[in-house]
Amino acid sequence: MTEATFITKNENAWKSLESLNHQVAKSGVRALAPEEVKEFARLFRLASHHLAYVKTHFPQSHMLPYLNRVVGVTHNYFYVRQSRAVSDIRGYFTHTFPRAVRETYRFWVLATALFVLGMLFAGGYVAADLSRLHDIMPPGFGHFDVTEVPDLGDGAVPWEYSLMAATITTNNITVTFNAIAGGLLAGLGTAFILIYNGLIVGGLFGFFHSAGANMTVAYALVLPHGVIELAAIFLSGGCGLMLAKGLLIPGEYTRRQALVMQGKKAATLIPGIVAMLVVAGIIEGYFTPLPIDPWWKLAFAALTGIGLVAYCLPRRVGRQKEAWLDAGKDKA
Predict the structure, then answer these.
(1) DSSP assignment, residue 131?
(2) Euclidean distance between CA atoms 306 and 300, whole angstroms
(3) Of 43, 54, 200, which Cα lies nearest the Cα of 121?
(4) How far is CA 249 from CA 47, 107, 182, in A?
(5) What is the pLDDT of residues 53-62, one digit of tens each?
(6) Quick check: pTM over 0.70?
């Protein structure tokens, strides 16, 4: 075979491998669909054989430096462990986490439904008799005089911002991890936490509404941080329900195997959930208490909601297909 014929026959494969190298360099291996990972490995083996062939039969070929470079770059992705913490983090938040949210939507939608169920029940329960608020609120929450219209002021709260942000974040992380761990109780613990928190939110807003409080201010005290915070709680509830599914509905697997599989999927979501809670805690500690017009706070809440939806929408690169590379798979 002549050099020209060899190049013409194989150059498309080399260009495909080079294209995948660029894609991995930009977004990481986790951005590839499973089929693309297999193709990546196949092209690497093929190009390695071609490189050896060129060195043997066409040692003066102008293609030798090119093939050396392409195969060398790919070799690094497969065999050289590099410190790529920043790249890995970026890849997780730009691809892995939003894709995992989409893949597990059935679980967090069910978790959301449990929360809303508790919220609606408590709203109606308290609206029928305002004194019932004290039956729902946890101890130490504070006492509301149900005979007076609640004075929420202008929505400003005199907090020590940095201390409150840290306290709130810690509390929220505790709640979400309890919701996840509750899945090991056949999902009963997760369901209890979701419904109970829904009861608190529904009871409080049912009281404010029926007592004649300024609802614009009431919503402005919760929604700026609440949109992200509640989304994180729903996702953590979804993680707990995944574990429950592994225990209760293992399918063709043993319960242990199913639990491990569901646990890996849940683990993929946890870093993103923690990041959401940190952001929500900062907003609740620094922004929510500010003495500004409540409508600005509600506008901010609307923007966070739109941002979350846009962030989780599918993003395709070239012909990349939606897929999930489970946490725990070896990195190239």
Answers:
(1) G
(2) 10
(3) 200
(4) 45, 14, 16
(5) 888 888 888 8
(6) no
